């Protein structure tokens, strides 16, 4: 069943009257009496020009911009669907916006078209709560297209926090070069070693031969101090000549990145912001291990620890830790 939410904001128009009869039309009152009729896909909505103009530059220009529509009492609105328009007119008169997973994108796009900024922001907040590994890449591109900066930032943060999982998705291969560069350049990229950054760059660039020209530009953003020798050794020894990545490695060998020679890249900040929790019955042969991403507030299951634990649970943070003994003989460690 689709999740449903009614979001409220500060009211603009307080008093509302329904039109008598079977028409799905709305009166919007209080700033002024209804003085115009809007038609959308044959449906009529009786509205106050002043009320809508106070909430939307689109309606302000429509009613008071000096155009042909300014003198009309009945105006047809094209390019929008009546279902979404009804939800938004309800929001304009009651400040209550009813959203669910089925209608939120349509309502957002209609609010964007009609320049109803408050409704637009509420839709974005709803979508932020729906962000997941499976939709964050698509949502990031969608938010960028609509200019929804907060939603874009939230989706981007999910991508940065779960980068190691995101790079295995097929959608990752469809990202433009600029987005790949933005992610690789971020200090908040949540990877312990830049092995993953190099691997992601190789995977993206080898997917399409036309991307080879971008490889050296992107690999400049990989931080060589965070590359591990075992990873490089395995990469070079196990890669076959038929592997599309082999050509990229040869390019890297022939055109060594200038930034790699400087040795001044900063450690990614998110690598110091990971928390691990060990739990479960202490007398078992293996202990459950969980990773907490502090930037996103999300938990992730890890491979269990293959040994018994003498305490009930323990917590360790990457970085400086403080050990604390609890009354139940368990240990809690804080950063």
UniProtKB/TrEMBL annotation:
A Pfam family matched in the record: BACK
UniProt keyword annotations, A-Z: Kelch repeat, Repeat
Keyword Repeat: yes
Ranges for domain BTB: 34-101
Top-rank lineage group of the source organism: Eukaryota
PANTHER family, A to Z: BTB DOMAIN-CONTAINING PROTEIN, KELCH PROTEIN
Name of the protein this chain belongs to: BTB domain-containing protein
Organism, as annotated: Echeneis naucrates
Lineage summary: Eukaryota, Metazoa, Chordata, Craniata, Vertebrata
